[in-house]
Amino acid sequence: MQAKRRRSSAATIALMPTWIAAIFIYIGTMVWSVRLSFTDSTIFPSSNYVGFAQYAKLFRTSRWLASLENVLIFGVLYVAGCLALGFVLAASLDRKVRFEAVFRTIFLYPYAMSFVVTGLIWQWILNPTLGIQASVRALGWQSFAFDWIVSRDMAIYTVVFAGVWQGAGLVMVIALSGMRGIGDEQWKAAQIDGIPIWRIYLSIILPQLGPALAASGMLLSMGVIKTYDLVVALTGGGPGNATEVPAKFIMDNLFERQNLGLASAGATVLVLSVVMAVVPFRYALSMRARRR
């Protein structure tokens, strides 16, 4: 008993710096930011409270509203695209193809890159004067046009392409590990019944991957809320506000416009968005565990 208490005390002491950092650095700065969102702080923090004036100003700002619309479009298409493409890639590799390790590495490699690198790569690919459009026109198709990156209506979809290209590999790995955990008996029974392979994956395999795909979706959703570097590297938020996202709006108001109060209000809204996304997922997991 004493030895167990010593080990427990040693573990507590070892974790103490982490707890201190979590409480005073992360939670402390979060509370401080929320406090600043109720003040008229500009370049320096202020103690002059203005209530919800910063939040009212925030939701009257067309740039902020455009950023919310853009992140909603990007989030839905990005998560759905990564889940769909990742599942297809996992199903393809699950057939035990030759050079599986090589293909798995190729598909997962984009996820190892930073969003800045991904944005720069796709900025070159989609650049009308250097990338796909210029290459196709050099082959003789002078009427070919693929200038989405400079179109206000289509620019947000270029960000989706770049994000899916990077994030699908994560879903592939998680889904593939789930597929490999399904017993061969189900495959044999389905094949005896003459069920096509594509139907096996959709009707038998996919329902069993629910927890794995839900975890993947949650990880991807968390990345959507804090999307910043991909947009800055790929489009810079343009053309106009076509690809503006909340994180960029906050950073611009914090460092360029020196509006600390408005930036803190935007950051608080993002924190609440994260909480609203995580709480239902955690509640569903707890209910699932209780049923088990």
TrEMBL record:
Segments forming domain ABC transmembrane type-1: 68-281
Keyword Transport: yes
Entry's Gene Ontology BP terms: transmembrane transport
Alphabetically ordered keywords of this record: Cell membrane, Membrane, Transmembrane, Transmembrane helix, Transport
One term under GO cellular component: plasma membrane
Subcellular location field: Cell membrane
Pfam families assigned: BPD_transp_1 (PF00528)
Name of the molecule in the record: Glucose/mannose transport system permease protein
